[in-house]
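The material for today's practical consists of a large collection of protein records. A record pairs a protein's sequence with a compact description of its fold. Instead of coordinates, the fold is spelled out as a row of discrete tokens. We will come back to this pairing of sequence and fold again and again. Here is such a record, shown just as it appears in the course material.
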Amino acid sequence: MIRPETLFPYNRFRDEQEGFIVRAYDALNEGNHVIAAAPNGFGKTISVLCATLPVALENELKIVYCCRTHTQNARVIMELNAIHEHLIRKKIVPGIDEIAENYSGVSLRGRNEMCFKDQIRETDLSPGDASAVCTQLRKDNKCKYYKKFQQLSASEIPASNILPRQALDSDDVLNACREKEICPYFFTYNFLETARVAVCNYNWFFNPNIHDRFMESIGVGIEDILLVIDEAHNLPSLSEEIYSLRMSKFTVTNARKELREYFTSSRDERVELAERLLIATEELFDAYESRLKLKDEMTIDGRALIESLRSSTRGSLEGAFKMLDDLGDEIQKQKLEAGRKSPRSACKAVAKFIEEWQYTMDKAAYHHCFSVERDRKYSSSFQFEAVCLDPGTVGIKKVMEHVYASISLSGTIVPEAYTAICRIPRPEILRMNSPFAKDHVKAIILDGVSTVNKSRTVEMYKRYLGKIIEMADATPKNSAVFCASYNVLKGIKEAGFEEAMRRVGKFPVIEKEGTSSSENDELIAQYKEYSRTSDGAVLLGVTGGRNSEGEDFPGDEMNAVMVIGVPYASPTDRVNAKIEYYNKEFGAEKGWSLAYEIPAIQKANQACGRTVRTLDDHAVIILADERFSRQKILGLLSPWILRNICQIKDVPGHLNMSVKNFFAGFSKGGCKE
């Protein structure tokens, strides 16, 4: 038996790292669910691999390691390869064969990203639709990449001839398979069956539409899975998204167009029944749209929607949406045969939505509403939604109850809240201290500013701009401002943000709502480049966005960050429904905190953490809302923020001096004004 600390491939452990590995190993071996609050710089990835691999080996388990991004996936594979090299170098295992048998791993991506066919790669098909298209292409013998994969399998050529390593990153798989013209999706799945570690997106394990297929491919039952959830603070919100439903009017309109286009010459009973269902659905959209008026959403009766459709289809609703689904299959097949770039069927999407809506309509864990997204590029988008209020009960609990054990880890997780929301059985909480030196990070709460609704005036935004100028002027290179909402961002921008930043010699970089991932990547690449080629830039964005949660800005890429406002959710019908539901589940005080307060402060914690990524970083964190000084909110801020925190008065120049003193090396005793 290999002890967990024996797997550690580096020369020395960081503070508390070895103890964490042993404690996590012991808890997981007993079948418990570990919730680990481990801050940035702790070395979470290698620590978790060292703790989980021995448990998996001793109990004949497989490790499913869930991450949010491909970058995080790649990090897991990199650390697994480091363990491989360590095991061989130190002669802990006899050779590569044992590595292949006991320590191999593979990073997974969705079929859309692991496919070379335009019909799948260049569309946004759902997992189910992508699978159907893939099946049809293979059935019609129209995929040369799958043929090459079959030839490889039949020849019994080992996968190592394509990629020699035993821990495979998805980018490496894609590149190697592109060169050999082999299907990367099936190549990866072929490797998955023998791999000890599968690294994937949350969806692979928590999305019911993907989970079963994934479990078939991994080759073991769920009771033989050791589950790792990285950045676990995201699991509740991502699961809410997975288990929620939405359908837009645009989808229904497209479904009617499909019927006209593909069944003009065969207006039989099937088409008539499907058409009747779609017309009734469009009429419901029109009726609710007239009632919505200037509001963005309204609560509706989930059952009433179904009963209205049942009446319009003369009592044969189930037959109607089943018929619509079958017609969607035929449409999808015809689109493929015609070589259409996107074979998605809107008819199938409508049918699936109505079927799943029926499942949710009487469940207290769902809030049903009619909503609109306004100011889109072309027009407003109206939609019906079934919003999941309780992802723990609806889905997460079922997973956690059946896996052998799990470890959830994050630098900003509130373990007790996470345990309650996700309904975690047999929890064991581990809290680790920050490895950063106390004087490397300085946190400041500003008096005299707030984004509470009554304070959102032109005067307040100008006051905020003054604070931003003070921070930017005193920061060596890049800094960032994350606002509580896009409305607050707009107020800061209109107060003269761009001109003010240029006056202090910084490039203004502004995050835009609704931009694509690739457009945002270009924006952030330019922002980071300014830290190397100029006196720096100031990024203006929002908390809870991709840049305040999903990006790393080490060193001069972000020396300081200002969080403007406490990022509470807007008091919409769905937010109020969630608070009411949680109050019933957990009691008024705890329910309010779980549903409303903790998610807001978690967003602030995440934004603060963007600037502290390596042990050598020095950073200033500015909490620009006097509400952050309230005891309840302070208690929810991450411990590493609280180690060197102070509050300064609303006096011009005080913030500038405090930040300058920090970067000049005079802040070790705390705040200086």
User: Anything to note?
Assistant: Residues 19 and 244 are 40 Å apart (CA to CA). The longest strand covers residues 366-373.
